[in-house]
TrEMBL record, chains A, B:
<feature type="binding site">
    <location>
        <position position="136"/>
    </location>
    <ligand>
        <name>NAD(+)</name>
    </ligand>
</feature>
<feature type="binding site">
    <location>
        <position position="268"/>
    </location>
    <ligand>
        <name>Zn(2+)</name>
    </ligand>
</feature>
<keyword id="KW-0479">Metal-binding</keyword>
<comment type="similarity">
    <text>Belongs to the histidinol dehydrogenase family.</text>
</comment>
<feature type="active site" description="Proton acceptor">
    <location>
        <position position="333"/>
    </location>
</feature>
<dbReference type="GO" id="GO:0000105">
    <property type="term" value="P:L-histidine biosynthetic process"/>
</dbReference>
<feature type="binding site">
    <location>
        <position position="426"/>
    </location>
    <ligand>
        <name>Zn(2+)</name>
    </ligand>
</feature>
<feature type="binding site">
    <location>
        <position position="265"/>
    </location>
    <ligand>
        <name>substrate</name>
    </ligand>
</feature>
<feature type="binding site">
    <location>
        <position position="268"/>
    </location>
    <ligand>
        <name>substrate</name>
    </ligand>
</feature>
<keyword id="KW-0028">Amino-acid biosynthesis</keyword>
<feature type="binding site">
    <location>
        <position position="426"/>
    </location>
    <ligand>
        <name>substrate</name>
    </ligand>
</feature>
<dbReference type="InterPro" id="IPR012131">
    <property type="entry name" value="Hstdl_DH"/>
</dbReference>
<dbReference type="InterPro" id="IPR022695">
    <property type="entry name" value="Histidinol_DH_monofunct"/>
</dbReference>
<feature type="active site" description="Proton acceptor">
    <location>
        <position position="334"/>
    </location>
</feature>
<protein>
    <recommendedName>
        <fullName>Histidinol dehydrogenase</fullName>
        <ecNumber>1.1.1.23</ecNumber>
    </recommendedName>
</protein>
<feature type="binding site">
    <location>
        <position position="265"/>
    </location>
    <ligand>
        <name>Zn(2+)</name>
    </ligand>
</feature>
<keyword id="KW-0560">Oxidoreductase</keyword>
Amino acid sequence: MSAEIKLRRFSSTDADFDSKLKALLAFETAQDDSVDEVVANILKDVKKRGDAAVLEYTNRFDKTNATSLTQLEIPQAELLAALNGLPAEQRDALKAAADRVRSYHEKQLMASWQYTEADGTILGQQVTALDRVGLYVPGGKAAYPSSVLMNAIPAKVAGVEELIMVVPTPHGEKNQLVLAAAAIAGVDRVFCIGGAQGVGAMAYGTETVPQVDKIVGPGNAYVAAAKRRVFGFVGIDMVAGPSEILVICDGKTNPDWVAMDLFSQAEHDELAQAILLSPDAAFLDQVYASIQTLVKTMPRQDIISTSLTDRGALIQVRDLDEAAEISNYIAPEHLELSLEDPLAFSKKIKHAGAIFMGRDTCEALGDYCAGPNHVLPTSRTARFSSPLGVYDFQKRSSLIFVSSAGAQTLGKVAATLAYGEGLQAHAQSAEYRLKK
Amino acid sequence: MSAEIKLRRFSSTDADFDSKLKALLAFETAQDDSVDEVVANILKDVKKRGDAAVLEYTNRFDKTNATSLTQLEIPQAELLAALNGLPAEQRDALKAAADRVRSYHEKQLMASWQYTEADGTILGQQVTALDRVGLYVPGGKAAYPSSVLMNAIPAKVAGVEELIMVVPTPHGEKNQLVLAAAAIAGVDRVFCIGGAQGVGAMAYGTETVPQVDKIVGPGNAYVAAAKRRVFGFVGIDMVAGPSEILVICDGKTNPDWVAMDLFSQAEHDELAQAILLSPDAAFLDQVYASIQTLVKTMPRQDIISTSLTDRGALIQVRDLDEAAEISNYIAPEHLELSLEDPLAFSKKIKHAGAIFMGRDTCEALGDYCAGPNHVLPTSRTARFSSPLGVYDFQKRSSLIFVSSAGAQTLGKVAATLAYGEGLQAHAQSAEYRLKK
């Protein structure tokens, strides 16, 4: 493919800017009813027949010939062997990334707290870790060791006792980088299972696969549908949409750098979205030209080209303040601030998954090893949600210890309100504690 | 109804205890497909036709005759009038409850943080509030002013700029206590809309109702189905199951008190669950007797009787340590520790929505005015989730500002890992930042 990439180009001064922007961001995750029906049946079967069902689906979909689920478990020694078998450079890079991710996430740990009131009443919040977590890891080309680190390390930092991982191994082929990452991240048990049956096994538990309390990790449409269905019975992380980057640039960064940063998002898949905002029209021209030149050097140029043509845009803004406003509307998954004094500028950003500041901070650094998580809210959900973190593997219990004196004052208030709501047992249980 | 309540009674020493316990807790929220279809159509229509659709559904379902949505908005002056019109005792009780809820929730506020590494790289987390939140409040008999306080106050403490509330007013009848609670909690705008159309109006926005970023609050099956459907497009709190209480008692609390505490859960609805664990068989007998006597004095005795018969249980345990274990399996919404030194005992509790400690701390105090939230995880979801809190109305953005020196070390690690994953643009964007 060597034709020019027809990258959308418009300006915030266009009369129809708002509708253009809305159209650019529109993305309907059409749920496929046939996928959902297949998934519902698999889940029902796994819940009912346990190991036997999981084994059948795995042999069928992954073309394996296992005779028991025990055979599909990868022993810890094999994970370690995968790690030790890597070229030193890759092993060191994985370890360096894991160390930085761990060290950043340790700062997110929540602690319990409590306080005592004048009358002796104690209030607080007790923080505990989830007991057991399941990590779904895709097989095949989308198998990313970095994703294992980003999902597993926060769980371990939170204090999750047992971390179970499932990963499909079509034709029995195992991804050594993924196994090595599991070893580094401290995953406790790994099963070669994928798809809805992998999600079901962890949600309901089988004779061999332990039941978990929450399932995290990316997956295809079947995995996403399965996670949606077991949600409520177990916790899940969010079902992610296509990946996005928004770059805000003052026009003074090397246009090749910005073009490559846009590519680094676009190369993920055809639905990925890469947008650049700049007040400098000439700079937009330069980035446009860089894109046309550089794409030819990219092994994934077909994907990049489709992604940029279908969902990319270069947008001229009046000034950087307007860029911040537009960015807050977009609520991007990844936001690059390629401009002077990005730290001051970041105060204007209200909604974004991760903010990459300065011309040197390309998104790729954050994807792998800067420290913060690369599992981020997509499709404008940064308006109301956060990166995956240690807090997703901890939860809180309210603590209430009302003193005898406290029960006298609080009891009257509670009884008044309970009578107002027509809940007499509530009122009376409070009144029992009042001293006559 | 004056027949004896046939309350389930068993012991942890029973051979089939595990399966009995499992059966007791089993609760399938069967999703009604016909409800879901009705809801899907209403949402589609509201998204497409905005005000006109909301107006039609409201007039039809709530038997009103409004000619515009503007008519359905309740002005602030009317909220204040409702507050001022309450009997002084109710007004003071509402205000006292609101003050305590606010003061507790202020302790939950998250703050931004950042740190600088030796090479000048800055990492951190920026915490911001959601812009606009929607609060659903049920109409009719389930309209609880305490619920308005518990949902609205954390949002306002978090710094949410605009809080929209919808509440159905069948035949135009408004609940003055609910309006008064909205005034106290600082709700910004109130619309007399309910059902799926109320959820849709807030999720998509109409000409009159502003679009929100997250919808919280309880509702009937239609509201729950609508929330599930708009989830992802906007945030939602969790879709709650029936309410539950678990009381652990050493046998030294007045059995009438414990019976009334069980009633205070059972009176909510027929599906509510109340369970008592005690090592003292004679005490279980006493509570059983108290239940039979006291239920006759309860205005809601039919509901209490059905709830206790269908879903209640008195369970004898070997000792209090075993009670803690069983409690951790149940992961109750409300847990009362009616025993000596409950603070020490609470350290054994891993999973619970709220822990009520000591013989004086009946659940009702927490429901109304102790301070912590009464919106709590039900149906064993306390294994992986938390009470509603300020943290549900704040979110985080990762901050990454890599120094020029940092880009040299991180760039090499990122490039190695990116090549390992076959993502060349990722690698190259990192390598561009390496100094030649």
